[in-house]
Amino acid sequence: MAYxxxxxxxxxxFRHFYPRRFPSLWERFESMIEDxxxxxxxxxxxxxxxxxxxxxLIEWARTHKEIFLKPNREELVFVTxxxxxxxxxxxxxxxx
Length: 96
Hints:
Layout: E1 3-4, H1 7-16, H2 23-34, E2 38-41, H3 42-50, H4 56-63, E3 68-69, H5 73-82, H6 86-89
Parallel strand pairs: 1-2, 2-3
């Protein structure tokens, strides 16, 4: 079983749970990454990097780029179907 992280939990983790204060949390987190139990998607990596601030999270994401997976064809088709629903079109992906 793997946990798929969105940007929000990563932001909270890096901004509020400092490694020196919570060493066992960070040890377990890194262990789960090494065991492929924590993954994310390319869009989360892009979102993290779009903040423009050079902080611990951006640095970490750049050194752990392998956990940010590209969607496969089946996933892309599924997302296309989601965005055919008018309600979800207002999310504004791709807009700045």
